[in-house]
From TrEMBL:
Its cofactor is pyridoxal 5'-phosphate. This is homocysteine desulfhydrase. It comes from Paenibacillus sacheonensis. It is an enzyme of class 4 (lyase). GO terms for biological process: transsulfuration.
């Protein structure tokens, strides 16, 4: 009998220590051994930069959540993503990444890795033929995200995986936005899932953490090389916080989904809103593919106003419960507009560029839905 998600999160992977109902935090840096020979055997933990019992608990739960063989917890989502990219790419290699991509991923693949002779192309994955056309003899890796940044585009995961298999390419997906409550990319054939656990997995906006989930073989190799060498280990206290957050993960995601759906419908009906970027709405062009791949939405969506930057600023400033800030996935509702900050190089010259200033991204939190709807409706009055 296989436990369902919430049951698994409550019990799985936790050893009983003194009958404590909550697993303890092992804050030790090193582990001592009975003898010279016992150390040589290399069983168990030896140094917390590599592994730690508090992280074990979290890693077991994360692997089970994503239906993977193994998981490794990292100090941040970016630590996880960089380790995976450096693991699969070497000098002379080429990667193809979906666009618009998370800013950090765009930063590593789009420029930083050039100094190692690693190139990348950012491609519109909504059309799999464009991905096919971007494949070069030195392409090694396909990188994509469960939703595109800001615009919430989704991609045909089955087609991407079959294209990759045809060409012998590895596939990596950042599943932070959708979460394994709604989408499990390993079931669609992806090789590796990466996460920022700072978002929904932690869920309380009190921790920065990341994770990689894949086959035991891939995880073991990443732990032996990139995890140890780059030193992106998650601290035990942070691991414990993510594990605590996970206890309510399934329940939180249900509430985020329900609230986001109601809010998206309200926005769609508003004459102040030109466009709602939320592929779970039946009128959205990618609705059929979305229903096929995702169990439910998360609390993330964006909408575009008829006005430009000034209208977006007025609406954001009028919000009361939605706080102004980056990140998302916590219990609190947040709003952000790309016009508030620079660093959107990847949009230059694209169809997305003129839409950035009039776009507001919201992370629908766990407040009462009716209050959030009233808050947005009041704020939208400031749009013109
Ligand atoms: C936040 C985020 C990251 C980076 O994670 P950190 O924990 O902030 O390092 C990567 N990808 C996506 C999609 C994110 O939202």
């Amino acid at each position: 009998m296989k436990a369902r998600m919430q049951t698994m999160l409550t019990h799985f992977g936790e050893e009983n220590v003194h009958g404590a109902v909550i697993p303890p935090i092992f804050l030790n840096s090193t582990f001592v051994h009975e003898s010279y020979e016992a150390f040589q055997e290399g069983k168990g933990h030896y140094y917390s930069r590599v592994s730690n019992p508090t992280l074990d608990v979290l890693e077991k739960k994360l692997a089970a959540l994503e239906q993977g063989e193994a998981a490794k917890a990292f100090a941040s989502g970016m630590a996880a993503i960089s380790a995976v990219l450096f693991h699969f790419l070497k000098q002379g290699d080429h990667a193809i990444c979906s666009t618009p991509a998370y800013g950090g991923t765009f930063g590593i693949l789009g420029s930083y890795m050039h100094k190692f002779g690693i190139a990348a192309d950012f491609v519109d994955f909504r059309d799999t033929e464009r991905v096919r056309a971007a494949i070069k003899p030195n392409t090694r890796l396909i990188v994509c995200e469960s939703y595109s940044t800001f615009f919430m585009d989704v991609f045909d995961l089955e087609a991407i995986v079959s294209l990759a298999k045809e060409h012998g390419l590895r596939t990596v997906i950042d599943n932070t936005c959708a979460t394994p409550a709604n989408l499990r990319p390993l079931e669609w054939g992806f090789d590796v899932v990466v996460h920022s656990a700072s978002k929904y997995l932690g869920g309380h906006s009190d921790v920065i953490a990341g994770a990689v989930i894949a086959s035991r073989e891939i995880i073991d190799r990443i732990v032996q090389v990139e995890y140890g060498i780059f030193g992106g280990a998650l601290g035990p206290f942070e691991a414990w916080l993510v594990t605590r957050g996970l206890k309510t993960f399934g329940l939180r995601m249900k509430q985020h989904a329900d609230s986001a759906m109601q809010i998206a419908r309200m926005l769609e009906a508003s004459d102040k809103v030109a466009k709602v970027n939320f592929p779970f709405l039946p009128g959205h062009g990618q609705h059929a593919m979305t229903s096929k791949q995702f169990d439910q939405p998360s609390g993330l969506l964006s909408f575009e106003l008829h006005g430009g930057k000034d209208a977006a600023a007025r609406v954001i400033n009028r919000l009361r419960y939605f706080k102004i800030g980056v990140s998302w996935g916590g219990f609190e509702s947040l709003a952000y507009s790309p016009g508030m900050s620079g660093g959107h190089d990847q949009f230059a010259g694209t169809e997305y560029e003129p839409r950035l200033d009039r776009l507001i991204r919201i992370s629908v939190g766990l407040e009462d839905t009716a209050d959030l709807i009233e808050d947005l409706q009041t704020a939208l009055e400031a749009a013109e």
